[in-house]
Design brief:
Length: 366
């Protein structure tokens, strides 16, 4: 990429996932006016985040059919920070954490920083995605203290079926494991409630989300955690978590002051993004038809996995596509997709760019 750009090449980046650079319609005036508030000049720290911001997050969930107590919420500077707080809360050095495979590669870095070890449980593929229950059971038998879920998963787009959901909650309770459920893409699934573990009472857990995906505003650095599970366990964990949050007090005052207004602006923005995701997925499936390429089905999220003929390895194909056609895609192994012949693309691109990028990809792969 550096070579090509230095030479003046105009690349089509089908990996781009930054919503602020995807030509999406933001209400710039309303967003900026939400930050125009005199209370920003006062420092009023609360380890859980301001009451107004927490009430706004709870109202966001209410509109999606989920009941959240504002007093139970914790606001953070990001979901990555939420992970770091929870790893400090729940893990000792060397403890094992169950991480989904395939998945976004962020977890390895976060767990290394927490001095924790990882074991994999699999989303397996046999023409459809399914949870490999045996791999989850083996990890728990091996002593894993924490299960990481991503719902919908990135990049598979998978959401636990009702039976898999009951299985995961039941086995976590049996082994005394805690669940952290990353639900940042839940608004981009068929049913937010089906994608979320909020309200589950079987086992201690935490649901994570934030403005980055909910409102397409990663630069404002506002995430949140929603504890769930048996009341005594939630109360004990929350008391300890408050000490961690109070130690850092990293939440941005402008972000929490603006949160109530920004969360109301999120809904029309999401509607435009969902329309784009549908348009680009339909275009991808149309162009793949009859070519030997196939877009794997998905329950949600911003990504698509493409199966291609295996004439060459993924890295060789990706580099050839980049050099010869000026199109960048992810090789599947970036996300720990086990088999060769998989590519991952982002669906949030401007449709004309996406259409042309997929056209070049299909022509190269046939």
């Amino acid at each position: 990429m550096a070579e090509l750009r230095a030479g003046g090449a105009d690349l089509l980046d089908l990996t781009a996932s930054n919503p602020t650079q995807a030509n999406l319609p933001y209400d710039a005036e309303a967003i900026l006016s939400a930050l125009d508030d005199g209370s920003l000049l006062r420092y009023e720290p609360d380890p859980r985040g301001s009451a107004d911001a927490r009430a706004a997050v709870a109202d966001y969930y209410r509109r999606r059919g989920l009941i959240v107590d504002p007093s139970a919420l914790f606001l953070t500077a990001s979901t990555s920070e939420a992970y770091s707080f929870l790893f400090r809360l729940l893990l000792d050095p060397g403890d094992q954490v169950l991480v989904p495979e395939p998945s976004y590669p962020l977890f390895d870095y976060l767990l290394d920083l927490a001095d924790a070890d990882r074991r994999r449980y699999r989303w397996a593929w046999d023409g459809a995605w399914y949870l490999d229950r045996d791999s989850l059971e083996r990890g728990l038998e091996g002593g894993a203290k924490l299960i990481l879920l991503v719902s919908p998963n990135n990049p598979t787009g998978t959401v636990l079926s009702p039976s898999d959901r009951a299985f995961v909650l039941g086995r976590a309770r049996h082994y005394g494991a805690t669940i952290v459920s990353d639900e940042v893409f839940a608004d981009y699934s068929a049913d937010h409630r089906a994608a979320s573990l909020i309200g589950s009472e079987e086992v201690l857990g935490f649901s994570l989300s934030g403005l980055s995906k909910v409102a397409g505003l990663p630069q404002l650095k506002l995430g949140w955690m929603v504890p769930f599970g048996p009341s005594p366990e939630v109360a004990e964990a929350s008391a300890r978590l408050e000490i961690i949050a109070d130690t850092y007090l990293s939440l941005s005052r402008p972000a929490e002051v603006a949160a109530p207004r920004l969360l109301t602006l999120a809904e029309p923005w999401q509607a435009s993004l969902r329309a784009r995701l549908e348009e680009n997925r339909a275009e991808l499936e149309r162009q793949c038809l009859g070519t030997g390429l196939r877009a794997r089905p998905s329950d949600g999220g911003w990504s698509a996995i493409i199966d291609r003929p295996r004439h060459q390895g993924d890295e060789a194909f990706v580099l050839e596509l980049l050099r010869e056609d000026q199109v960048l895609v992810h090789p599947g192994y970036f996300f720990d997709l086990a088999e060769d012949g998989c590519l991952v693309v982002s669906l949030i691109l401007d449709p004309p760019q996406f259409r042309e990028g997929i056209r070049r990809l299909v022509a190269r792969a046939r």
